[in-house]
Structures are given as C-alpha cells and as structure tokens.
Design a protein that fits this description.
215 residues, five-stranded mixed beta sheet, 13 strands
C-alpha cells in the first residue's frame, strides 16, 4: 500500500513531526513536539484518522504536544522503556533548562505502550520495524518502513551531521555504532527523515557526512 509522509517543523527549534498516512486516510504520528492545535487542525482538515503516536525519544522538543494530540483523537502513545521516566523528569527531557519559554515546560506526557525490544509493528495496513539507535539518548528508536523505502530516525542522523551526544545519557561511540549498524546498512536510497532539517539518504551520508568518514 502506498504511504504518504507529511513533515511538520514545529516550535522554536523546528523539530520535525511526521504524519504517515495510507490510502484509507489512516495515519501514524511521530514526535508531536509542539503546536498541537496546528497538528490537530491539519489532521482534521485532511480527514485523516490517527491510530497511534510513536516517539523516537523523549527530549522536550519531541514530546511537547503528546497529550494534546493524544487526547484529541483518543489514541495510544508508544515510548522506549529506557525513557519512560524521562517523560516526567524536566532535567532528563530538557524542558527544565528552558524555564523562560512557557510553552516548553512539558507536563508529564501520558503513554499506553512501552517498547521493550526491537520488533515489527503491524497496525491496520502499516507494517514497520522499531530498531534501537541509542547514542543521542539511551532510548532512541528509529522506525523503518521497508516497503515504503523510508525511515524516521529522530535525532540520530542528520543531513551532513549526527545527533548531539553531550546531553544526559549521550555517547558518541554508541551513536556512531547505531548509525553504522542500523541506518547505513539500509538500502542506499532509503529516505532518512531526521528530527530536524531536510531528509537525506544513507548513500548521501556515506559520501559526504564528515562525522562518518571512519565508516
């Protein structure tokens, strides 16, 4: 089934939220980080039917609108087991560092499902794989849509760059290993949808990303 991916750069940091929909107008929402009203309005305007929210990780700019969107459509939220506690911890999710920005004081986002192991999800007509790509944070997940030819990778890999590793639980060696083992091994023309900025491909990053020269 043909899938369509909408990209929404949200909030002051322009964090990418992705809405993946099928021909039946069902959709999955990844990282609703801010501007919940805008997301809800656009989803309704396009007559989409949300099924679930999936988080790549729980930094504040990726979870700020979780409750608003979740409650608007009465849908479940999926999060990695290593970052469940981060949802309610302003120092770990980073929202405590931005007290001057009221919109970024994150209320504890609610969740229904904990992702404990790498697995294949089948939700209605959507089939995709959740693979662990820690390094930027300990519970970072990339979602691989093999049939669709794309992956939603959060802040693991960017066009010409990689995720920062100076935050709590970050590790440069772990991040580079995640990228090498889980993302650069995908077909070279796979569309990589990152947490910020434009999409890229494994081929482009192996060719020009200065952080990956060793690979």
């Amino acid at each position: 089934m043909k899938l369509s991916t909408r990209t929404y750069p949200l909030g002051p940091i322009q964090t990418n939220c992705y809405i993946v929909s099928n021909s039946s107008k069902q959709c999955l929402i990844f990282d609703p980080g801010e501007e919940g009203e805008r997301l809800i309005r656009d989803i309704k305007a396009n007559q989409l039917k949300p099924l679930a929210i999936f988080l790549t990780h729980t930094h504040f700019d990726h979870i700020g609108a979780v409750n608003e969107v979740r409650d608007a459509f009465n849908i479940p939220v999926y999060v990695h087991e290593k970052e469940v506690a981060w949802l309610a911890d302003p120092m770990k999710n980073g929202s405590g560092k931005y007290a001057e920005l009221p919109n970024y004081i994150v209320d504890e986002p609610q969740y229904e499902h904990i992702i404990r192991g790498e697995q294949v999800f089948t939700i209605e007509d959507f089939t995709f794989k959740a693979v662990f790509t820690p390094g930027h944070s300990p519970g970072s997940i990339s979602y691989i849509f093999e049939e669709g030819g794309f992956a939603i990778v959060g802040d693991t890999l960017f066009e010409g760059s990689i995720g920062r590793t100076d935050l709590i639980g970050g590790s440069m060696p772990v991040l580079l290993q995640s990228i090498h083992d889980k993302l650069l091994t995908l077909p070279e023309d796979t569309i990589i949808y990152p947490g910020h900025g434009d999409y890229t491909t494994p081929a482009a990053e192996m060719e020009a990303n200065p952080f990956l020269n060793g690979f």
